[in-house]
Amino acid sequence: MIQFIYDNSLGDERISLIDGQQPRLQRWLRQVAACYGFSVGELTYILCSDDKELAVNREFLGHDYFTDVITFDYTTPHCVNGDIFISWPMVQSNAADAGVSAERELLRILAHGLLHLTGQGDKTPETKTEMTRKEENALSLFN
User: Fold this and answer.
1) Taking each helix axis from N to C terminus, what angle separates 88-98 and 102-117, rounded to the nearest 10 degrees?
2) Per the confidence metrics, is the pTM higher than 0.90?
3) Distance between CA atoms of 39 and 45, rounded to whole angstroms?
4) For 88-107, what is each residue's pLDDT tens digit?
5) What CATH number is associated with residue 136?
6) Phi, psi at residue 123, to the nearest 5°?
7) Which end of the chain, N or C, is more open, meaning fewer C-beta atoms within 10 Å of its C-beta?
8) Strand partners for 40
9) What CA–CA distance (Å, rounded) separates 17 from 38?
10) How confident is the model at residue 132 (pLDDT cuts 50, 70, 90)?
């Protein structure tokens, strides 16, 4: 099951991509996982504010900085399971910086979190380059 949850820190803000295309997003995310030999078990995306993302980062990871995505991995062999917190304001800011739509950047972040659950890393320059390539491949599957 793939769920999209709005944290109350976003107030009444809604995201049209999430609200209007959940079945398509769910199919796409399952397809991305399958590319890496995984099925999807319980996967929850939590869309939240920068402040909520920072609080989660501090409380659970001991990091005192803002980030766009935090992935909690509960994956079992060949089945992705996890909670992925996404800062919607940071996604919007990153999109503006990159000159892409917020929806495209959100898709990239959705894929990014899922790729982490399939074992993909991004801590070194090499793995970061590889992660970017895999994100682009995932995005091409949505189009």
Assistant:
1) 110
2) yes
3) 16
4) 999 999 999 999 999 999 99
5) 3.40.390.30
6) -90, -20
7) C
8) 80
9) 24
10) very high
Beta strands in the chain (DSSP E): 2-6, 39-48, 69-73, 79-87
**Which residues, including other chains, have CB under 8 Å from residue 88's CB and lie 6 or more apart?**
10, 13, 15, 47, 48, 49, 106
User: Which residue range(s) make up the domain with 23?
Assistant: 2-142
For residue 78, give the nearest of 114, 36, 45, 42 by alpha carbon: 36
Distance from C-alpha of 104 to C-alpha of 2, rounded to nearest angstrom: 19
- Residue in the structure block whose two tokens are 């970017």: 132
Q: Identity (one letter) of the amino acid at 12?
A: D
For the cut 80, the answer to whether the pLDDT of residue 143 exceeds it is no
Q: For residues 73 and 75, what is the distance between their CA atoms, to the nearest angstrom?
A: 6
Mode of pairing for the β-strands spanning 69-73 and 39-48: unpaired
The set of residues, in sequence order, having a beta carbon less than 8 Å from that of 74 and lying 6+ positions away, is 42, 81, 82, 83
Number of domains, the chain: 1
Q: What is the pLDDT of residue 78?
A: 93
Position 22: which residue type?
Answer: Q
Rounded Cα–Cα distance for residues 36 and 91 (Å) = 25
